[in-house]
Write a structure and sequence with these properties.
Helix content is 57%, strand content 8%. The chain is an alpha+beta fold and 637 residues long. It has 3 domains: 344 residues, no CATH class; 43 residues; 200 residues, no CATH class.
Length: 637
């Protein structure tokens, strides 16, 4: 047996071993009988423990197969079905919340003080470890604000923390809605709407540029399995009826669900490969098709797990141990997959073993500390109730009820004000687009070459909402004015694949002229004043234009926006690994538009401000983007 084949065989043993561990000691309920522990708290935690390990294997499989490019046997399919196991976490959360709020009279009284510490404390502790790892282990230089941002989770030093952020939002809305509405079914309906709105919002946020950190609601993992939370809520609401029906018709429903799961898995693979969320032909079409298929797959695959649990009760010491620290393991394993071992050369099977062992060992050390902190925090926030009938007990209970009422009121005010502020920040620029357009046109018509003008909006800093975008006037021809952004506002490849490509066929051109990208910058008034050149709304400067419009290297040195820097666009900074860089300025290299034949290199302006036509490969990530647009504010419509 050659080494490559041996590696693949060993690699595919990992999911087999996991299945053996999961079902070791499992009990069957018997023919036609519903398992006594069906979806009990213990069973859902054990299932989450299993799902957590699969998520680790999923991320490792993505790494060793290049996201499915290199076939490594049956395990390759884990590239595409990780969402099915993230769905289990969403289902468990939705199912648990509704089960509790419908069956426990005072559940909301201590919901925030008990639930929030259980997710926030592990999140913050592991964020602290991430900052320490990168600062002391890899020489990353942090400012004080960056430390606060990463530890708090405002920026995600640990990309797996996305689930915590999203579930916290859902928790807050759950608490608010079930506190406001006395009819629980009404609150359930509105919470479902909120979850759908979160999916819709995330859907339109796109992705971060290639970089170290992730940002809220950017990336399909934020929304492609979230709908299962809604499924979990309604399953809990009608559990008895659903369970009775499924148990009665189990012989029919189970085979159908199994077949559908397999078919939909293949469908999910197809749409991700064929359409996906990274397409640059753009428009909503491709992403919407992918989301719909993946959402259905997630619901059906979760139902398959539920049906298994109707007949099979799992449980053994190993699985219980893993499930007891699944949150910490879910969060921490990303450090070992990427930061620690990502660039270390080893066989695939060795990588799986080393990352799994390191992740579990580290979690085993951290988890008891986290659990102790959670226990102490919950105890501090939730004083014991008096159970006697003394005056002291009555006074204490009255104080507890007042605290609960105040907490609900404060939460409601914070969520409502936050939501209103967010909506205003996101959409205010649209409401005042006409007035802003008139001001912009007046400034542009009076501007001279070299002046700065405002035109459109874009996300240029970490604050909520878009900012007015500053452009430089670089050329005027009659009523037509050529504008180029003052700063680098975005980052992208010239082309995603490493191949010879012209500007006309490049992914960067497609991205800049995608309908969603254009509407994200320009209002309908501004778009109407754009002069389309060579079928492009936005373009880039050519080599000659960059040389003519900016006469010196210093003038061509580009500063990027704070948001672009956070999202991973290249920047010329001092760091432990770049001690040679003592120039004192902070510039970024930026793409220019190629005008020649297809090439694997694209022209750029370097960090020094020099122009180089054969310096960066077309698929180099983190290149700064400086859009160019021609406008005519005197068009007759």
């Amino acid at each position: 047996m050659n080494k490559m084949l041996l590696n693949i065989v060993l690699l595919n043993l990992f999911p087999v071993i996991l299945l053996i561990i999961t079902f070791f000691g499992a009990k069957f309920s018997g023919k036609g009988k519903l398992a006594s522990d069906f979806l009990s708290l213990e069973q859902t935690k054990l299932i989450q423990g299993f799902a957590c390990i699969v998520v680790v294997l999923h991320h490792l499989t993505q790494q060793v197969t290049g996201y499915g490019v290199y076939i490594k046997g049956p395990i390759t399919i884990l590239n595409y079905c990780g969402i099915a196991f993230t769905s289990i976490f969403f289902f468990s959360s939705g199912y648990g919340l509704i089960t509790s709020v419908y069956t426990k009279e005072d559940y909301l009284d201590s919901f925030l003080t008990k639930r929030l510490p259980t997710v926030l404390i592990p999140f913050w502790v592991i964020n602290i470890l991430g900052v320490m790892l990168k600062a002391f282990g890899f020489g990353v230089r942090y400012t004080k604000l960056e430390v606060i941002s990463d530890i708090s989770g405002y920026t995600l030093v640990n990309s797996n923390g996305w689930f915590i952020i999203e579930i916290l939002f859902i928790y807050l809305f759950f608490y608010l809605l079930f506190s406001l509405f006395s009819k629980k079914d009404v609150a359930l309906f509105f919470l479902s709407i909120v979850v759908v709105l979160i999916i819709v919002y995330s859907f339109f946020q796109g992705h971060d540029a290639d970089g170290v950190k992730s940002h809220w609601f950017k990336g399909e993992w934020w929304f492609n399995s979230t709908i299962v939370f809604v499924f979990g809520m309604y399953f809990a609401r009608f559990k008895d009826k659903i369970a009775a029906f499924c148990s009665k018709h189990y012989k029919i429903i189970m085979p159908i669900t199994t077949v559908l799961t397999l078919i939909l898995l293949q469908g999910a693979v197809f749409v991700v490969v064929r359409y996906g969320y990274y397409t640059t032909g753009f428009g909503v079409h491709d992403k919407l098709i992918t989301l719909i298929v993946q959402s259905i797959y997630c619901i059906v695959s979760t139902m398959f797990i539920i049906l298994l649990n109707m007949r099979i009760t799992i449980g053994n010491k190993v699985l219980k141990y893993i499930s007891g620290m699944s949150v910490e393991l879910f969060l921490i394993h990303g450090y070992f997959v990427g930061t620690v071992f990502g660039s270390v050369r080893m066989t695939d099977a060795t990588r799986f073993a080393v990352v799994l062992a390191s992740s579990i060992a580290c979690t085993a050390v951290i988890s008891p500390i986290v659990r102790w902190l959670v226990k102490k925090t919950v105890k501090l926030l939730n004083p014991k109730k008096f159970i006697n009938d003394t005056l002291e007990a009555a006074i204490a209970e009255e104080k507890r009820k007042k605290r609960s009422k105040v907490l609900r009121t404060v939460t409601a005010v914070v969520v409502i004000i936050g939501s209103v502020a967010f909506i205003c920040a996101e959409f205010s620029y649209r409401m005042f687009a006409g007035k802003r357009y008139a001001e912009e046109c007046e400034a542009i018509n009076n501007a001279k070459v070299g002046d700065e003008v405002l035109w459109g909006t874009f996300e240029t800093d970490p604050a909520v909402g878009k900012e007015r975008l500053t452009w430089l006037v670089v050329k005027k021809v009659g009523d037509e004015v050529c504008l180029v952004t003052k700063e680098g506002i975005d980052g992208y490849f010239y082309n995603q694949k490493h191949k010879s490509v012209t500007w006309e066929d490049s992914d960067l051109r497609a991205m800049l002229n995608d309908r969603d990208y254009i509407s994200g910058i320009l209002s309908k008034y501004e778009l109407a004043s754009v002069v389309v050149k060579n079928e492009d709304v936005f373009t880039l400067l050519t080599v000659d234009e960059a040389a003519n419009y900016f006469k010196t290297d210093k003038e061509r040195q580009l500063h990027i926006t704070e948001e672009a820097r956070i999202e991973g666009v290249n920047i010329n900074e001092l760091s432990k690994v770049n001690e040679w860089d003592m120039k004192g300025y902070r510039s970024s290299w930026w793409w220019l538009r190629g005008t020649g034949e297809a090439d694997v290199y694209a022209p750029v302006v370097t960090v020094d401000g020099t122009i180089d036509e054969h310096f960066k490969e077309v698929n180099r990530t983190g290149g700064a983007v400086r859009p160019v647009v021609w406008v005519n504010c005197n068009k007759v419509y």
